[in-house]
Write a structure and sequence with these properties.
Elements (H helix, E strand, L loop, with lengths): L1 H20 L1 H17 L6 H31 L5 H29 L2 H12 L2 H20 L5
């Protein structure tokens, strides 16, 4: 049991470390928050929810792998090496590929002018929610830009 607890502690330490050092990860976490929040305005099926959650999980996991690969590469050498460049570029490309697919899926699920109008009117008819939403956007920008990368 001690080994499992130690493994969970290490995993959570890895999550916190990546959040502190990776602006792209923080961006994806914020995007995931808003995607999930706005999904409640749509009548998504269980399958659509599953697709969204799997895509979010895949993107976050890809960001963690990307961070791990970049850190290992930097540990190997700080000097330019074409193989290191390829490894770093490929891991970043994996995140980008998943992100592009997620945007396409979001477009398919959410692009509905009448629903967008309903959401806008929902917030504009409730000024306190609109203020809260704007405040959350400001806090999101602060969160994304807050930490300095160790690189």
């Amino acid at each position: 049991m001690k080994k499992q607890i130690k493994s969970f502690k290490a995993a959570f330490a890895g999550i916190l470390s990546a959040i502190k050092s990776e602006g792209h990860l923080r961006f994806h976490l914020v995007a995931a928050f808003y995607v999930i929040a706005f999904s409640f305005f749509y009548n998504l099926s269980k399958a659509q929810w599953a697709v969204l959650l799997l895509l979010i999980g895949a993107i976050i996991a890809a960001e963690f792998f990307n961070t791990a690969i970049e850190n290992v590469c930097d540990l190997v050498t700080k000097e330019y090496d074409e193989r290191i460049k390829i490894a770093k570029d490929a891991s970043a490309a994996a995140v980008l590929a998943l992100s592009i697919i997620a945007v396409v899926v979001a477009f398919i699920f959410y692009f509905d002018f009448s629903r967008m109008y309903y959401i806008a009117m929902y917030f504009f008819s409730r000024p306190w929610l609109l203020i809260l939403f704007v405040f959350s956007l400001i806090m999101s920008v602060v969160f994304i830009g807050k930490f300095k990368s160790k690189k």
